[in-house]
């Protein structure tokens, strides 16, 4: 198993023939991504560099980290009022891009500017199995940056939405997978934001909960000024987003009106 990723050291900016030209801001920019590069460094990965096992065993010093250059000079501007889809094959850099915009990953080159703190809705909220649902709601909301007063105000709604009922006082390890997912979703969507980023993986739970989640996402979308949606479902992207960015091996392959970008992507993948 790879060790936890470490941010790669900053490289010398130098020149990059693949870097996009500096971005043009246009009117009312909410997110500016300017020639962004992100590299993961995986320590302890077994790199098969062709050297013999004996030579590898004798090699002095620490094992060489493996580097994954996940974003390679990505640039674009998102404006107020836009709903933008991000598509691309597995490993093309979609999640990395959202995490970078949310400020959860350092860049090794390039910059991200946002107007306010973006909220990234993902299913991976780190909840604690030994704590009750109630404690997890409070800690989860605080961890998202919500002030305690707002956590108190929203607590009942989160419990109601999660559908946990009296289980909210039980430790999370006693929950079924579906119940834990519902709790994560309820916590993640408790917060509203001007810049809302949604990972498709959120569509979890049974049919009734899925319908409620879709309604909740719609409400959040209506409240947000700018929405970014990552999805493998081209239908959802076409329905929800006016504009789509196609990522390919860490680069922007196409950025334009959703029907055009989705059609080009389908041509290549279907
Ligand atoms: N924590 C990590 N440590 C090391 N490499 C990572 C890590 N997360 C992602 N990567 C690598 O970075 C690249 C981009 O991954 P990312 O998850 O951003 O792609 P994605 O487009 O979201 O993929 P998917 O559609 O499968 O969710 C991939 O090569 C992936 O292996």
TrEMBL record:
Entries under SMART domains matching the protein: AAA
Nucleotide-binding listed as a keyword: yes
One Gene Ontology cellular component: membrane
Stretch list, region Disordered: 1-26
Gene Ontology MF terms in the entry: ABC-type transporter activity; ATP binding; ATP hydrolysis activity
Top-level division of the source organism's lineage: Bacteria
Keywords: ATP-binding, Nucleotide-binding, Transport
ABC transporter domain sequence ranges: 52-270
Basic and acidic residues bias: start-end ranges: 7-19
Pfam families: ABC_tran
Family membership: Belongs to the ABC transporter superfamily.
Protein name (database record): ABC transporter ATP-binding protein
UniProt organism field: Actinomadura montaniterrae
